[in-house]
């Protein structure tokens, strides 16, 4: 009985207005804390512009993941507003946003089966042209050509037959096959060797201006191509600007 009450209490409440594409998303004076004593985000002002690459950089506990969770509506601000275009976060039908978002994290989960199966699991109806396009954008065509059975190669439980970098590129390809409007890269290159990180960065550069990209990273060097970089310190946006401008500071 208590469990049912708890579920009802924590049930996700969502608005009715559909997400508007190609509009800026703004955090206005947003604060959030997991408990009353400690704020994780304090009066954050952030703008995620459409078709731009926006990066959030900072150490552990700086509030990067909390910011993402607020953006995706998994958390609600204690104070302040997240505006999706002109829509207040309370009025947004959050599923209409999430349907347009693809997410790539540092932990890649792949299933026992073929490479093709893993790439199209998010979009089984994908056409041959769409698969080809996503593979090209994710820089995995060369890798496919080297595999014994190409796209039909069995990759083993959690992609055991692929290297870490290959798995990450497959995750990026899988994300792109959904034709997202917003791509989130959450520490997506933090565990990769420098050559693979370069591959992923080249892939992201190809996507620049074609969709909105949100990058979360520990290191400033990872996000040098971003249009705007926010440096988070203890939940506050300490400074923001282009990579070059921040480097000067």
Provide a descriptive summary of the structure in words.
The protein is α/β, with parallel strands linked by helices. The chain has helices at 2-9, 64-71, 94-98, 115-120, 128-137, 141-146, 164-176, 194-207, 243-248; strands spanning 25-32, 41-48, 53-57, 79-84, 87-88, 101-105, 182-186, 212-217, 228-233, 236-241. The strands form 2 sheets. The chain has a 6-stranded mixed sheet with strand order 6-7-8-3-9-10. Strand 7, helix 8 (194-207) and strand 8 (212-217) form a beta-alpha-beta unit. Helix 7 (164-176) packs parallel to helix 8 (194-207).
Summarize the structure.
The chain is α/β, with parallel strands linked by helices. It is 31% helix and 23% strand.
Q: Beta-strand percentage?
A: 15-25%
Give the mean pLDDT: 87
Taken in chain order, the helices and strands follow as: HEEEHEEHEHHHHEHEEEH
Count all strands and give the number. 10
Distance between the termini: 57 Å
Low-confidence stretches: none
Which structural traits does this protein have?
single chain, alpha/beta, 6-stranded mixed beta sheet, 4-stranded antiparallel beta sheet, 9 helices
Chart the SSEs and their pairings.
Elements: H1 2-9, E1 25-32, E2 41-48, E3 53-57, H2 64-71, E4 79-84, E5 87-88, H3 94-98, E6 101-105, H4 115-120, H5 128-137, H6 141-146, H7 164-176, E7 182-186, H8 194-207, E8 212-217, E9 228-233, E10 236-241, H9 243-248
Parallel strand pairs: 3-8, 3-9, 6-7, 7-8
Antiparallel strand pairs: 1-2, 1-4, 4-5, 9-10
Helix pairs in contact: 5-7, 7-8
